[in-house]
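Can you please make up a protein's amino acid sequence together with its fold in token form to help me picture the idea?
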Amino acid sequence: MVKKLTGLAALTLLLSACSTTSNTVGNTVDPVLTQSPRDLAMFTAENKQCYDRSTQPYSFVVDAHNHFRPFGGHAIPMHELDDYFRRLGVLFVNVYGIGQTLPVDSSCDYYLDCPDTLVIPSIKNDFRNASNYMEFPPDGLHLTLSMSFPNLAEPQWIKPQMQQLNQEYPDKFKWMGEVNLVKQALFKNGHKATPIEAIPQWADFMAKLREDKMPVAIHSDLGNDKEGENYKYLPLMDKVLELYPDNKIVWVHMGLSAELKNADPVKHIAVMKERLDRHPNLMLDISWRVIYDNYFIKPEVRALYVDFFNEYSTRILPGTDFVASRKKDFLVYAQEVEVTSRINLYLDDNAFRNIALGENYFRLMGLDQYRAPQICR
């Protein structure tokens, strides 16, 4: 337990230093406290240095789920986000847009603040992310551009728009997601569950993803806390997995959501294991602090998920699900990293290396130049 408490103290010190400053843009924090010693060289095949869990951060090195664009309003500039990542030692980041955006004339930054305001799929955020990426090439980071535009209910437009992005930015997009199969939080804003009849019509763009070896990250709620509805929408994801077994599919949040806060963890884990066993190309994303706040925070529940992650350690990806609204700053992101990384404290060394230190991500993405360091014995 010593290594865990030491790692926790190190990151707590970092966050304490952050909180001594006002929560506004422009304030700085002592770089000695906020600058992580981790760099890309530590994650190359040539690196011989082991990772000491007793002295080095337990926070993940990969944020596989980060929205660089908000639903509405202004975004944190990409070069500023890059600085956040470097300071926290988050070296590998998926650059998501937002699949559904608020109208340009809306005064809202977040869809929950504007019920009854339509959110509509748009490709504009993917273009903005690519343009910013080209203008501000990441220094000391590995960023992966993601196509976040698809409306899965209208699949006929997806492949042509993929081609449009690839024509404008050849060989730059390596991921698709987060795309919404069903997201109950958006129901008041005009979103509906994708009809199961539409899923067979995905064949063209899913074939293109296989050809380009691009994973697709799918938001697909399992259900909600109403009696008998915990797994209401499971047939949708099962249909996707049945029809596209050769695609690299990432099921974000393990199907959990703010609408499903009280699922029986034993049953939920059993459902996840069954899908992982049946579909070798499926992976789970454990991003979003909603999972920690409602599940991992409870010791007896956390222990069940730790056993699950240790057993299926090659099938899990970490992340924050941070949405980069200009109303947020470094402290907010640092807190999101800390909370969503706490589960790492309890993982065994093999799972910690695969999940927190990025081995799963490198393998999924075919990043042969990178490798997670071994854990010090």
